[in-house]
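Notes, p. 3: input format for complexes.
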Amino acid sequence: MQDYHGKAVAITGAANGIGQELARRFAAAGAQLALADIDADHLDALVKELEEGGAQVLSAVFDVRDYPAMEAFARETFAAYGSVDLFFNNAGVISVGTVWEQPLSDWDWLLDVNVKGVVHGIKAFVPGMIAQDLPCHVVNTSSIAGLLTVENSPAYVASKFASLSLTEVLDLQLQGVGSKVTAHVVCPAVVQTDLDNCLRHRDPSTYDADDPYYRTDDYRARMAVVTGSMPHGLPVVDAVETIITELEKGTFYILTHPAYNPAITGRVAGIVGGVRPTLVAR
Ligand SMILES: NC(=O)c1ccc[n+]([C@@H]2O[C@H](COP(=O)([O-])OP(=O)(O)OC[C@H]3O[C@@H](n4cnc5c(N)ncnc54)[C@H](O)[C@@H]3O)[C@@H](O)[C@H]2O)c1
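Output follows (282 residues plus nicotinamide-adenine-dinucleotide):
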């Protein structure tokens, strides 16, 4: 890993999982950090840990659905550090269900966090990053579910296809204005994190816990697929090692699980061949 002394790194979804490990790695490499999350307890504990290790850390507790709060976070970050070298738009959540049964409120929540939250980060940070006129990077966390469809989590898949494609458009537009900012998209398959516990921080106003669908065998079986897969995922330290290595090489599509590469090329071949998607047994 390169030396990040004198560099500023901002991360959303920093309190757990991939964001937390990114924060630890960049702190160890000397960066000044700006960390945001909805999870105040875990974020405070991380800030304390990193400050005890000698890092300079600014933190903010807010929901990425809240654009004024994201704007304030960006303003405080630029004010504290003068410039932003890396911005990780990383916060994300997951849900499961069939398209025809899943409550519509799940769609609103997923798309608001995983898509509009990413747009909020771009709108709040990128103008300042363009204006500073330095080589710097916006890194959006999509998923392998932004490149391949799985039938368990339709809103998640749709949100991750959206965040991947909007990152492509962002990079094209940055090229179009001759900016020194580059965009990158991270596409992990399963990583051992807290993603399957994301309901714990869901704003109750976005959620009808009594919706009968949540008591069906179908919903429980789909949730079990998510929770059952997490312990078999890539350790978060390994995923983050790949993310940092590829970022430092300038890679646009950062893939952490090469075993899926044949499926990605197979998907493209299937599209041009007009082939129906194949159902994989759960
Ligand atoms: N873990 C995986 O298998 C996996 C695979 C592919 C992509 N991803 C993506 O990686 C990113 C990071 O997730 P993770 O796996 O580290 O999960 P995680 O749950 O361990 O970490 C996500 C963090 O985002 C925060 N967060 C959630 N909603 C928020 C909101 N509305 N506003 C602010 N913060 C919020 C959570 O509190 C948490 O700290 C997500 O975008 C996720 O979709 C994860």
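Helices lie at 17-28, 40-52, 67-81, 104-132, 154-176, 217-229, 236-249, 261-273.
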